[in-house]
């Protein structure tokens, strides 16, 4: 079997969730008490300069590795094992049906045989893994298996970044799977445990906004849009003549001219709400569904003032910001006020940290 440990490996020891996006590195470490309640032990964010990570590819390895070292130091953690993720665009996934009752070795042989049909590369060039999802709903006695594969160099880049920072990568996941895991915990907090609740999750990144429509843990629809928080930075540059670096720093710190809220922020928020509404319309016209229960927003720009209200107004659906730490105990090492301000940015890294507790 050609694999990095496992794309779906389950870990019991202390584990960091490390999310490397185009704009920042996010770290989360969780623990759990005897009752099963989660505790946020450590978290930190370190910004990345534009161009260091492009389309999920590591363009400036040394600079990103140094940022990983900084985020580990900033968090105060001493844990070395780390779960990381690749963007969905870098991973080929396919659900297949295999006979039940096969041994692990027999499953590996079958998966490799099946993978040749779906992966447009030689198996020598990929990291390949699989996960048995459970009995097949369509075929009695068979099991549903999820195959995941990625080019080896993509996996090795993530491994190398961790190792350069003195960490040991033990899980390589898929970003959308990790964010979905953290979101599922929040949905369980809805009435009736979130059963049959239809949630449209929008993760607003710097350059891309990704949408997943989730019901009972299943993804009904996925879509990416080339729209994100970097466009707000560009508007600030045009409006005030700052350099892109200055604009990004001032956007994060809030040190902007008095007319910023009305001249720049509100028009951007309204446009973002329209983009979300447009994405929902694509979902409705592409599926039998014509409504949802909640819009959930995550990512660095999701906490912009007025955004949830603008989305509700634009879509007529209830909108909330995803706080992956909602209901958790907050450890002594966490700066509570700063964490609350940035919470929605941690959705994927929180999902990666939760891999520790999967049985």
UniProtKB/TrEMBL annotation:
<dbReference type="InterPro" id="IPR003494">
    <property type="entry name" value="SHS2_FtsA"/>
</dbReference>
<dbReference type="GO" id="GO:0051301">
    <property type="term" value="P:cell division"/>
</dbReference>
<protein>
    <submittedName>
        <fullName>Cell division protein FtsA</fullName>
    </submittedName>
</protein>
<dbReference type="InterPro" id="IPR050696">
    <property type="entry name" value="FtsA/MreB"/>
</dbReference>
<dbReference type="InterPro" id="IPR005883">
    <property type="entry name" value="PilM"/>
</dbReference>
<dbReference type="Pfam" id="PF11104">
    <property type="entry name" value="PilM_2"/>
</dbReference>
<feature type="domain" description="SHS2">
    <location>
        <begin position="15"/>
        <end position="183"/>
    </location>
</feature>
<keyword id="KW-0132">Cell division</keyword>
<dbReference type="InterPro" id="IPR043129">
    <property type="entry name" value="ATPase_NBD"/>
</dbReference>
<keyword id="KW-0131">Cell cycle</keyword>
């Amino acid at each position: 079997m050609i694999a990095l440990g496992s794309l779906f490996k389950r870990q019991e020891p202390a584990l960091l969730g490390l999310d490397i996006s185009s704009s920042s590195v996010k770290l989360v470490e969780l623990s759990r008490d005897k009752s099963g309640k989660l505790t946020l032990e450590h978290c930190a964010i370190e910004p990345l300069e534009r161009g260091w990570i492009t389309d999920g590819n590591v363009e400036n390895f040394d600079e990103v590795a140094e940022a990983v070292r900084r985020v580990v130091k900033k968090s105060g953690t001493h844990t070395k094992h780390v779960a990381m993720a690749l963007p969905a665009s870098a991973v080929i996934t396919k659900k297949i049906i295999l006979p039940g009752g096969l041994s692990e070795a027999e499953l590996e042989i079958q998966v490799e045989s099946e993978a040749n049909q779906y992966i447009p590369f030689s198996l020598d060039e990929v990291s390949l893994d699989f996960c048995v999802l459970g009995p097949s709903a369509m075929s009695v006695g068979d099991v549903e298996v999820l195959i995941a594969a990625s080019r080896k160099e993509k996996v090795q880049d993530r491994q190398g970044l961790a190792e350069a920072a003195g960490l040991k990568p033990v899980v390589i996941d898929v970003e959308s799977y990790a964010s979905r895991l953290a979101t599922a915990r929040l949905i369980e907090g809805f009435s009736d445990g979130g059963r049959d609740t239809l949630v449209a999750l929008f993760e607003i990144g710097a350059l891309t906004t990704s949408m997943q429509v989730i019901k009972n843990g299943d993804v009904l629809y996925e879509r990416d849009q080339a729209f994100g928080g970097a466009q707000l930075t560009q508007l600030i540059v045009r409006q005030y003549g700052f350099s892109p670096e200055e604009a990004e720093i001032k956007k994060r710190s809030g040190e902007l001219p008095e007319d910023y809220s009305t001249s720049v922020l509100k028009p951007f928020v309204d446009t973002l709400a329209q983009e979300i509404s447009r994405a929902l319309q694509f979902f409705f016209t592409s599926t039998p569904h014509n409504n949802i229960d909640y819009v959930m927003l995550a990512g660095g720009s999701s906490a912009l003032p007025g955004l949830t209200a603008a989305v509700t107004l634009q879509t007529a659906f209830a909108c909330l910001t995803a706080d992956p730490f909602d209901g958790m105990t907050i450890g002594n090492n966490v700066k509570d006020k700063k964490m609350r301000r940035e919470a929605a940015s941690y959705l994927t890294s929180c999902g990666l940290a939760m891999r520790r507790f999967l049985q």
